[in-house]
Design a protein that fits this description.
single chain; about 575 residues; Transcription Regulator spoIIAA
Length: about 575
């Protein structure tokens, strides 16, 4: 039982000594990437650098115990940090202390929502946002991040908060560019891209951080107006929180739900991807609990929400990490830096951090996904692009709602108009097949076999009736029976049942019987037992277990009618 709740303990209980070398190397490499990324992403979240270090360190300890993925690394995420800033800035009203208190509350509520979702078996929400819509949302986030870092790279600030106004203001103030900052930032960008291309296993972010600090110290760039990070406090965080009005909690809860949806969807996709590469399965419900534990750890450490980190997970996998011990090693190394080695970070230039963030954002932008969508489905390509534009125009938080709304619209569009077909027999092929696919299929005079490839519920019941009417109208000669192949139908609700009965009465007035073949017993599971049993008994003569039995009954009826007519 304990292994089910704490999968990491099971990995440690069956640990093989041959894994240790790879796990240690992977842990050191992950730490080298995660620490500078945590510092950089703290800027996105609008908090001091040390808060990003907390987010990079403490959630790793929690995930090592609760996570079901052997490769996944948790920590700060660009999209999550942007949502945090967009959510809390209006509530804080420019007060840094209030902002920090709101952030801790947001992180803790996010963690609680994750855990409740895990015990509620809500892991299926990982599939709620379709891949095109998720890619479109993250592409919008990536563009917002780049737009936000451009002024810092050029050495001045802008006042605009929205994407397009920010670009306009940036362009209008190019004359204010601080040349030393720009040169340093471009050099850091070039160094990052060079390392990623030529030496991809090298911790590029760490190299840039060290190079940036070295440049400031050697050239006295801080004396020439280059903005540096400033003193970073060492030591462990102390937990404290604040109480707010109920309306504030309502807003935080809403934003926490949005963060949980988006960050879990992207994080669990990363976990699934690397689990598939290493030939094992993860438990999505356990991942909810693990992400909840990570966010509680981050909240108690006075930091912001975290999720699965794809870049650090990729480093772990590339270095041969085998178990959750990698996260513990990485967290321990970063903790030592936090305790004893924060002094040099005071000279870290903001331009170097901007370079790290911009490269991360560029990698977040999924051009390959857009290209593939354009080749595969223009409709889903437009959905993805529409989501991106929605995020850029409406903002980050409305962008979450837009992504959810587009997912729901797409889901309703697909399920409200399922495939339908009239059926017939094809020579030398078993079963019954769609007439659209096999125009040569044989049919029985007076009989329409109709298949509805979906559930019969409130949002497609009218469509069902329209398609049955169209099938009757398209039949050759008068129709006596319409037999519904109900095998694909798994759910029927009250509205669907009522519309079905209305159609049965409508057809009966025209002398046509509406028959069900292959209906499942479980179709009555959403109705009261007495109603379902009574309905089944009343309509027993109109229900058949298979299409073949319905066809035999129709043919027998016709033969008996013919014999009766001949006798008269």
């Amino acid at each position: 039982m304990i292994f089910r709740v704490l999968p990491g303990l099971q990995a440690f209980a069956h640990y093989q000594p041959s894994w240790l070398r790879g796990d240690l190397a992977a842990g050191l490499s992950v730490a080298a990437v995660a620490l500078p990324v945590g510092i950089a992403y703290s800027d996105l979240a609008g908090v001091p650098a040390v808060v990003g270090m907390y987010a990079a360190i403490f959630p790793l300890f929690a995930y090592a115990l609760f996570g079901s993925s052997r490769q996944l690394m948790t920590g700060p995420d660009a999209a999550t940090c942007i949502i945090v800033a967009a959510s809390l800035a209006p509530m804080a009203g420019g007060d840094p202390e209030r902002y920090m208190a709101l952030m801790v509350t947001l992180t803790l509520i996010t963690g609680v929502l994750y855990i409740v979702g895990g015990f509620g078996r809500l892991g299926f929400i990982a599939n709620f946002l379709s891949q095109p819509i998720l890619a479109g949302y993250l592409n919008g986030i990536a563009l917002i991040i780049v737009a936000g870092q451009l002024p810092k790279l050029f050495g001045y600030s802008v006042e605009a908060e929205e994407f397009f106004p920010k670009l306009v203001e940036f362009a209008s103030r190019l004359a204010e560019t601080h040349l030393p900052t720009l040169l340093l930032g471009l050099a850091m960008l070039a160094l990052l891209m060079l390392i990623l291309r030529i030496l991809p296993k090298l911790p590029a972010a760490l190299v840039v951080v060290v190079a940036g600090i070295s440049a400031v110290l050697l050239l006295n760039l801080d004396q020439q107006g280059v903005v540096v990070l400033g003193a970073v406090p060492s030591g462990l965080p102390s937990f404290h929180t604040s109480l707010f009005d109920f309306d504030v909690y309502k807003g935080i809860f809403r934003d926490a739900a949005g963060i949980a949806l988006v960050s879990f969807t992207s994080g669990v996709l990363t976990a699934k991807s690397f689990a598939r590469r290493n030939r094992y399965e993860i438990d999505a419900n356990q991942e909810l609990i693990a992400f909840g534990a990570c966010n509680l750890a981050s909240g108690f450490a006075q930091s912001f929400p975290v999720t699965g980190a794809d870049s650090r997970t990729a480093v772990n996998n590339a270095m041969g990490g085998k178990t959750q011990l990698v996260g513990i090693v990485a967290a321990a190394v970063m903790l030592l830096v936090l305790l004893f080695l924060t002094a040099p970070l005071a000279y870290l230039p903001g331009a170097a951090l901007a370079a790290v963030i911009m490269i991360s954002a560029i990698h977040l932008f999924d051009m390959d996904a857009l290209r593939e969508l354009y080749q595969v489905s223009h409709r889903e390509f437009l959905l993805s692009v529409g989501t991106t534009l929605g995020v850029l125009i409406l903002g980050v938080l409305p962008g979450v709602l837009l992504a959810v709304a587009l997912s729901l619209i797409w889901l309703l569009r697909v399920t409200s108009t399922p495939h339908t077909s009239s059926l017939g027999r094809v020579p030398n092929l078993k079963g019954f097949h769609a007439l659209n696919d096999y125009p040569e299929a044989g049919t029985t005079e007076g009989l329409v076999l109709f298949r509805f490839d979906g559930n019969l519920v409130f949002f497609n019941a009218d469509y069902f009736r329209e398609r049955v009417r169209a099938a009757v109208a398209a039949a050759e000669g008068p129709v006596e029976w319409v037999v519904i192949d109900a095998r694909p139908v798994n759910v029927v609700d009250v509205t669907g049942m009522q519309k079905f009965d209305e159609l049965r009465e409508e057809l009966a007035d025209r002398g046509i019987q509406l028959i069900i073949a292959g209906g499942k017993q479980m179709l009555g599971r959403y109705f009261n037992r007495g109603y379902a049993d009574g309905r089944r008994e009343r309509n027993a003569s109109l229900n058949y277990p298979t299409l073949k039995s319905a066809i035999r009954a129709f043919e027998t009826r016709n033969r008996e009618a013919t014999v009766s007519s001949d006798q008269m």
